[in-house]
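User: For my dataset I need records formatted as: sequence, then structure tokens, nothing else. Please produce one.
Assistant:
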Amino acid sequence: MRNWLGPLAFGLIVAGVTAYGAIRAIPYGLMNVAIERLGQGGVNTMSYGNLATPARQPVVRPSPDLAYSSCPYNISDGPIAIDVTPVPDRYSSLSIFDAATDVIFVRNDVEAGGKPFRIIVARPGQAVPKGAEVVRTNHDHGIALVRILLKDPTEIGALDAIRRQSSCGTVTKLK
């Protein structure tokens, strides 16, 4: 009976370490997939996605009544600025996710008072413009999503010009 206790204990230890490693690694893998699928315009650049359809679903369970704009970011060389212009009379929000898929910032149009706003995403210690609203993260990579609620999918054409006023990019000037 004692002959199988050693292999059983070893098997349980290996299973536990493997499970722990998988749980730690999966969020980073999922974020890499999301960045690849949503980053048609590249890193530190806003992409303005088409509406989700049954044939085109870049992420799991996208809402067909939301217009998504996305900015995969890399702040290893410096902070980025995300500028959001809410669409009048539509719910909209900015959500920023870090490399571990944790939500590190959210603001909707009501919280913004319907006015445009700028968020700087930076690592601790990176210089940012004076007076800027800063979100600090310990991860170099992540993704920012701007969502706009549509009353009808056909509205996307009329709202696209306003939607494209939201942008992201590397902070080049520190004031």
